[in-house]
């Protein structure tokens, strides 16, 4: 370490970091992993929220009115179930029996407060000058004549018919309402679990904001997973092309994976400790993992790429790694701090999930810096590197391209500046063409 110290800056903080990673690599790795596991263990408290209303500011007048209505009258959310077969009339004894079975099954649901269908509706007939009130569907098994009589009644009472029958007489419609708007995913899951087996022989269509909202937790999870899979696949391909080292790529992935784990765990812990809805994972948070992936990837790639360049020049792992840490610790720290500060401005947003977004992604960025500055160099120091491999001895495709671009910038600065300014002006003009769309249905 004395030999290395003589060639590095004497800044005490940088010297301490280099000393920990190079002289005590196993201790540094174990402590880093234990702290990451402790923070990441909060993942068990991590919750995905399906309430679209939380995407609106709390002091928004329309939200206040909506919540007041919900408190006074209960849930106004409903799920629509339409079933039938295209090209075939729904007015037949089999379909009526299925409707009866479905209605009875749904009435036993723990999340279901009320439902409306032909089975639960009533009819009023004039008999000998008296008004007779009876069930629209008095029993499960009806003859075709009784079904035809029911159809005739609905044809004469179009207001009732529009509530329960499609215009082409091919589908029944049932509306189902939960006790409250909390946990609509449970309401949606229970309803689908009950309905699907009973309606196995029919085309089934579910609708309504309650259904969409109840589907959101699974949809958000699938969306994030798909984004991460595509992002990691593209990233690995680019890294392999640039670094040409499987261990190097694996080390970058290590930083990314542990940073994501710590970020999600921190979100769970903060929600557990504060109980604040700001730290629930909503539709607004779906970009968090992919953004942290790119930032953590950048930190890791900076360290690995710089290490390879130094190793190419110095041919000594410890000296190359010490030089790498000495030159990158401050730049990566400053980059991380400024990025955290930028995301921290989201805490000023009146939209609650964005407050949590800014705090949590800041924690993830800080963790990526911590891992890439201490744990990653420690892991690199333990690896037996082949100094004769192409990854060390030869420039990568990207390095060659950057070298050529650097020469162009140095030899033609005016042209480069003019081209950049032109692109910026075009972008500024495009700002006036931005359209703000608040249609929630276009979220999906």
Automatic annotation (TrEMBL):
Keyword Membrane set for record: yes
Keywords (A to Z) from UniProt: Cell membrane, Membrane, Transmembrane, Transmembrane helix
Domain SSD: 288-382
Gene3D superfamilies cross-referenced by the UniProt entry: Multidrug efflux transporter AcrB transmembrane domain (1.20.1640.10)
Entry membrane topology: Multi-pass membrane protein
Residue ranges of the TM segments: 29-48, 226-243, 249-271, 328-348, 354-380, 415-436
GO cellular-component term (any): plasma membrane
Subcellular location: Cell membrane
Name by which UniProt lists this protein: SSD domain-containing protein
Organism whose genome encodes this protein: marine metagenome
């Amino acid at each position: 370490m004395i030999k290395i110290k003589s060639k590095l800056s004497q800044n005490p903080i940088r010297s301490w970091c280099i000393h920990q990673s190079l002289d005590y690599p196993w201790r540094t790795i174990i402590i880093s992993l234990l702290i990451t596991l402790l923070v990441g263990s909060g993942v068990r408290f991590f919750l995905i929220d399906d309430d679209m209303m939380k995407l609106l500011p709390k002091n928004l007048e329309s939200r206040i009115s909506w919540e007041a209505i919900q408190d006074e009258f209960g849930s106004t959310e409903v799920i629509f179930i339409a079933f039938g077969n295209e090209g075939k009339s729904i007015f037949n004894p089999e379909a009526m029996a299925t409707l009866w079975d479905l209605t009875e099954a749904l009435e036993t649901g723990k999340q279901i407060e009320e439902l409306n269908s032909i089975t639960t509706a009533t009819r009023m007939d004039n008999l000998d000058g008296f008004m007779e009130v009876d069930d629209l569907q008095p029993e499960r098994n009806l003859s075709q004549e009784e079904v035809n009589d029911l159809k005739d009644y609905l044809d004469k009472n179009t207001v009732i018919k529009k509530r329960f029958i499609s215009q082409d007489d091919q589908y029944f419609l049932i509306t189902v309402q939960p006790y409250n708007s909390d946990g609509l995913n449970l309401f949606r899951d229970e309803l689908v679990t009950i309905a699907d087996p009973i309606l196995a022989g029919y085309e089934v269509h579910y609708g309504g904001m309650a259904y969409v909202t109840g589907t959101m937790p699974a949809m958000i999870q699938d969306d994030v997973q798909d984004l991460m899979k595509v992002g990691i696949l593209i990233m690995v391909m680019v890294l392999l092309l640039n670094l040409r080292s499987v261990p190097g790529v694996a080390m970058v992935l290590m930083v990314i994976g542990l940073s994501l784990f710590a970020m999600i765990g921190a979100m769970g812990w903060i929600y557990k400790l504060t109980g604040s809805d700001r730290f629930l994972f909503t539709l607004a948070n779906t970009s968090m993992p992919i953004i942290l992936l790119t930032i953590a990837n950048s930190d890791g790639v900076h360290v690995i790429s710089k290490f390879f360049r130094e190793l190419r020049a110095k041919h000594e792992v410890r000296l190359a790694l010490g030089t790498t840490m000495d030159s990158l610790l401050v730049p990566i720290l400053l980059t991380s701090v400024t990025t955290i500060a930028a995301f921290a401005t989201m805490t000023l947003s009146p939209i609650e999930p964005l407050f949590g977004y800014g705090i949590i992604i800041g924690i993830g960025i800080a963790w990526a810096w911590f891992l890439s500055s201490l744990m990653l160099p420690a892991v690199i120091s333990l690896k037996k590197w082949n100094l004769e491999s192409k990854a060390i001895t030869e420039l990568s495709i990207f390095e060659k391209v950057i070298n050529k671009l650097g020469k162009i910038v140095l030899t033609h600065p005016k042209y480069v500046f003019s081209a950049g300014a032109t692109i910026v002006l075009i972008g500024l003009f495009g700002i006036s063409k931005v359209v703000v769309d608040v249609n929630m249905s276009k979220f999906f």
